[in-house]
Amino acid sequence: MAVKDEILKIFEQDKGVFYSGEELASVLGVSRNAVWKAVRQLEADGYKFDAVSGKGYRLTEDSDVLSEFGIRKYLGSYADKFDLKIYKTISSTNTVLKEMAAKGAPEGTILIASEQTAGRGRMNRKFYSPTGTGLYMSFLLRPQMNAEESLFITTAAAVATARIIEEVSGQKAGIKWVNDIFVNGKKACGILTEASFDMESGRLEYAIPGIGINITPPQEGFPDEIKDVATAVFDGVVPPQDVKNRIAAGIIKYFTEYYENLPQHAFFDEYVRRSVVVGRDITVIGRGETRPARALAIDANCNLIVRYEDGTEDTLSSGEVSIKPKFE
Hints:
This protein is of the alpha+beta class and 328 residues long.
């Protein structure tokens, strides 16, 4: 492990505690100059340090940079369970992880980034992923399940994400079927699950749920095409300390709890309770057409039951629905 990483691990474990260059050099068996260079490198990566003569360095409480050590310290018993790979910039966490999955990467590989240059959403849309204001992560799963059961992965990820958003922000987080998290009536998070299937058995070879969260608004604002429907978890509100690492760790913990017990559907009641579409007028988008409908219920398989204007009912297992940006 590089000196920079060793020093970051120490500072992340004891954020706010001063360490002298001499102490760090002695612990790591390196020169004080190597310590100084490592601290400068960390500052270049966005970490904030206080340097006080006679005391040394300390990582400030308001440093909010995604890091492996920053996430692991919140994972508790899960701290050593996953292979975490952190990126400052990546094309797309889902795209890169799919390539890794095809080459045999194991379940439990998780990619987390501060920026995506080619983020993707559903329906082949671009997913706006600017640097510094969001959190983008993908899980590699190799579940023993059939293709039709894969919807449970997306819905479990949605509940896990909504839970940690509420925990860190104190705001209500609703779920728009099947995969969007709404805060204050607008979309703050999108989830895209991609999978590979064995054509003979019909079972999953792997599944990759990707989660993109707007933590704070971009300085220049959201692009015109999404500014009326997009928001951030902390819009006009100062986020708590270390919020990105806390949210990443919370999603990992809560999603893993659900995933390890997926057949029990322990997330289901929470998914239904958080729905922002049931009982509302919606537009069903799919098969090249849009149809007004009323969302009636979510069934035990997490499908959406709708009634169209002509009185016919349908059960949706895929596709997309839209609602007005504001809801009660």
